[in-house]
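Input record (one chain):
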Amino acid sequence: MKAWNPQTLVSKVRARIRQAIVGRARFVAVRTAYVVVILFATLTGLEPSSDLAAASVRLSNAFQLSFAWGDAFDDLRNIALFAGLGVVWVMTSVSSRVRQEVWRATLTGCAISVFVEGLQVFSPIRTASIIDVSTNTAGAFIGGAGIALVLGAIHRAKGAKSYVGVPTILIAGPYLGAVLCEALAPLFHSEPLPQLEGPPIARLATAISLARPLSWNEVPWSDGPLFLVAGFLFIALLRELDRSERSSTLGGSVTATIAASAILVAAHVVHAVAGLSVRFEAAATDALFFSLGAGAAHVWLGALTRKFRGAARPRAFLFSYSVLLVLWAWRPLIPEFSAQKIASQVTLIAFVPLGSLATRVDVFSVLHVAQQFLLYVPVGALLAVWPLRAAGKSAGLWPVVWFVLALEVGHLFVAERLFDMTNAMIAVSGLGLAWLGVRRSGFRQYGTLLREKRPVL
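The corresponding structure, as predicted from the sequence alone:
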């Protein structure tokens, strides 16, 4: 029988305490970093004034409820920004009382919002509003409650059959959300048209009338592979969720694909309400490639799962998805040779979180953030159960972080793209939070994606 050693027990307790303190410190640092991002996004360019009389008038106006159609985009941005706070707060909680953490996130969001709106009272170029406090607080609650529900669903799915070791909803769900963001606010048609004014129905009617005649120049061919993969993942998701196997039949696949394609087309039309142009060429192209991807999955998904087994399957997925991320980042794949244009992109605002999007009060400034976040959730979820290596520099997420930074620097040399470190920050956030969520849900590691080096005998 092994002798009991008090010194060993004390050492283990100390190690556990040290580990807990370090973990808590990291979580606090993450929360603090996000609060700093919020303050950067809301207080940059405040230009405060010491005129107390004017500040008193602004404070009085802040409690006057008024709403215009243009305010909807600003409110949507507020909800999205503070929803991120709710997500980060719950994800970095060391407590098991999730409901309590949701309310703490909500109260924190409210306190930050009151602080920000209070400072905006002293700015002659900002408009403080109680509505902003309400939308910010609601955003924090939506983010916290939403991620709590997601974490619960992930935890319940632990141990169930899946294609790559994590529920396919964590792979296909975020990616389908990203392509829906693309349909709602296309990258190269995201500038609001000056002709689209008035109430939503009037904007929609005007946009449809301007959508003709059709033009081959408006066909977004570079979007084809993006929506092709979306269709493939859509069928994979249905196969995993549908235990009755109705989605594995041709009729079930066709019905589901038609419904999803109709949603994509509707998204292309509905974005006219936000002042964006309607291009039926883009809508038809996206729906066509989505359908082709769904058809490919119906025919080849089974064969691919039989061919790629063990670590080979997630390895093949990660490689393919990395190529896809390059296409997302560097569309339209046209090099930029002008040294002047390249140099002009390296500005201070490009390194300020959300700095370049702060001046855009439109739907694109919201959906682009959501899209960039969603695109990297599948990578973080996959690496949580299939790390690149068991130990060393490749054991964590740093290789993907460097990959994200390389893609962003590459924007400097791609025509029609803009260098902005906000993109990298959002991508790393999606990557890290997905990894943390899967790990905290108790998923075990299945192995490594890169073959370990064998010692030389």
